[in-house]
Amino acid sequence: MICIGAGFSMAAPTFLPAGKKLANEVHARLAAKLPHVPECDPDNLVSVADAVEPLETGSDLIRRTCLEAADFLTAAPNHAHKLLALLLLEGEVSAMSWNWDNCIERCGRGEELLTIIRDEDRIYAQGSPLLKLHGCANHPTTMLVSTSDLDEPRPWVDAELAGRLADSVVVFVGVGDVVGYTKRRVSEIKETLGNPDHIFVVSPGIVDGWESSAWAEVLDGLPADNRIADTAEAFLESLAASMIMGLLLKVCDSAGEYGPLKAGANAVKRAVEDSAPHLVLSLGRFSRVRAKPGFRNVSRGMRQLLMRIG
Hints:
single chain; alpha/beta; 7-stranded parallel beta sheet; 7 strands; 48% helix
């Protein structure tokens, strides 16, 4: 389970703002719209939302202003978005997003990613979904912003997070702030399992800046090996490459000791391992035989690719 936060959508060419910058922009826009903005911390979006929420139509106002303050609907997807979309389509991972943007969903190249936003979306969902825990800019009423939103999320959100934390390898990528129900659930898992070695945190500064990070409090004592100082793009590249190589090794093992077949399999392995992971996945995914999205079909798409290369 890949869990992504604001840091995932800050890289070029997406350039969506970090929490503080978004809060400042939202506060400035509210100041231009309202006779008086209630006292709050303009550097903290939750604080700004809490201040405006009690006003008449305050919840609607804060969500609309957030959508005006940043390009959540049309920002250009970055390399990490594209890689994660491919891995979701292949059924190799599931993902939880704390982001409102729709960058990942727009990377399907004609295929629709299974996306869960509302309670009714979860009822009949199968495969490897993208779970948008804080809502989506495509459906503004689902966006979680204030303290009351974050303390009491939709029923499926709390249930999914608790379940995945308990029984999946969970990797937090670009998640700098741990708030509300997320902090509660992560803390509960830690209390139950001790320092679980199935949880990882990925961020460029997470090793050197561990003590000052929000994660140091929530996951105090997290093993050093579970703190990965990497960008989202570099981590997803490594993850995709390892999955592809795992499949290629199986292909080579399946060739057995028959000379021509073994030589052909090794030639294919060399050709593929010298290629960028996203290109390999793209070629396999969008070959003439298209596998059903989200059901661990990488082998089917890859077999088609290997046949072509061979």
